[in-house]
Design a protein that fits this description.
The protein is mainly β. It has one domain: Immunoglobulin-like (Sandwich), CATH 2.60.40. The relative contact order is 0.23.
């Protein structure tokens, strides 16, 4: 008797239990999207670059600083309309002209990117017109790539007091 009752309860539980589980459902539609992300940051400011030495008979020695880095995150590879995808670049620009007969160069190490295509332009003279310093960046999240500044002045510059040069780095479509 007990076995027959247990078998009946078990059968009813399985039949109705599974039916209840199958009927107790809810659905949601979850919209997802990834927007273009283009972020760049620098680790800080380099020390003041001071031209102060020269070999007799030659122009003053340039000063080099490689104490800072930049971080980049870009996922922006939207279709370019030709069947390919866009890449990004980093440009650099000065906020104001340098004193006459001086030059400030910037060199950014290319970030590691998905396509392994990023290319550094090497030593690029900075000016008030933006210049490409890294091109062909194909999606990257690189936390610390080197920045090198080289400052030079010819004897024609004379003595130049301390001046701050603001350099702006920008990510833009290549």
């Amino acid at each position: 008797m007990f076995k027959k009752l247990f078998a009946t309860v078990l059968t009813l539980t399985l039949v109705f239990g599974l039916s209840v589980v199958a009927m107790a459902q809810a659905q949601q539609v979850v919209g997802i999207q990834v927007s273009p992300i283009n972020q760049i940051a620098v680790s800080g400011n380099p020390a003041q670059l001071v031209v102060s030495t020269a070999v007799a008979g030659q122009q003053p020695d340039p000063v080099i600083d490689n104490s800072t880095t930049y971080a980049i995150t870009t996922n922006d590879n939207r279709p370019d309309g030709t069947g390919g995808a866009t890449t990004q670049k980093i440009t650099a620009v000065l906020s104001a002209p340098l004193p006459p007969n001086t030059a400030l160069l910037i060199n950014l190490v290319a970030p590691i990117d998905v396509g392994l295509t990023a290319i550094s332009a090497g030593n690029v003279p900075l000016a008030v017109v933006a210049a490409d310093v890294v091109t062909l960046i194909d999606r990257s999240a690189d936390p610390a790539k080197g920045i090198t500044y080289t400052f030079s002045a010819s004897v024609a510059a004379g003595v130049v007091g301390a001046v701050n040069a603001t350099v702006t780095l920008t990510i833009a479509s290549d």
